[in-house]
Amino acid sequence: MKAFTISALAVLTSMVSAAPAVTTSLAVPTAAAIPSSSGSIAITFIGAADAQFTQSFSTEGFSYPIYNTLSVSKISNPGGATCYFYGQDLKRAATVPSGLTVDVGPPQQLLYGYCYAS
Length: 118
Known about the structure:
Layout: H1 2-18, E1 40-47, E2 52-58, E3 64-65, E4 72-76, E5 81-87, E6 92-96, E7 101-108, E8 110-117
């Protein structure tokens, strides 16, 4: 019985070491994550005391999460697309036409947005 146990253990060990590795990752969309066939636009989000961050969005309507926790009061769109952004209540917080800067009222953390080429 001991020989069987050792042989079974050796077989199992070789099966585990031969198994392919599995990895899982969640990628935060960045300019590099936008499909290369699409255009992209860099949107600037502005909060209190001129704190700001910029994030790229595809101009083909793909929805991208926004992970920055800044309470946004203005959104600046350099042009080339009309964009839509949604806040914590999942309601549209702002529509930002091409080439404009708009107020977000009330200021809030945004969850996701998408843009369509003009």
